[in-house]
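Quick one, probably user error.
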């Protein structure tokens, strides 16, 4: 799966850019765990599916790195619960 999500390690967040706007997920790496602290999409991206695309990319990155995900953000938690194909990543 190809993803446009990139890891902005300097800002400790994953980012997805669409039409000049950013959706992002703040994270912290703790051992083999990826803690998602906050997910946010720029106002023009809200309701477009950008945050969901971002979370799919985050989940794929976590899987490729052999990590689990601890979602502290309500959106991230709800997204993973709705997408059963990523349930194995939930910590």
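Nope, works fine. Designed sequence:
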């Amino acid at each position: 799966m190809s993803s446009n999500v990139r890891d902005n390690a300097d800002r400790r967040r994953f980012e997805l850019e669409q039409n000049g706007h950013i959706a992002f997920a703040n994270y912290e790496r703790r051992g083999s765990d990826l803690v998602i602290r906050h997910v946010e999409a720029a106002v023009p991206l809200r309701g477009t599916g950008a945050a969901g695309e971002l979370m799919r990319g985050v989940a794929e990155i976590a899987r490729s790195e052999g990590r689990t995900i601890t979602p502290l953000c309500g959106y991230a938690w709800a997204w993973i619960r709705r997408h059963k194909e990523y349930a194995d990543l939930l910590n």
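The CA atoms of residues 76 and 86 lie 12 Å apart.
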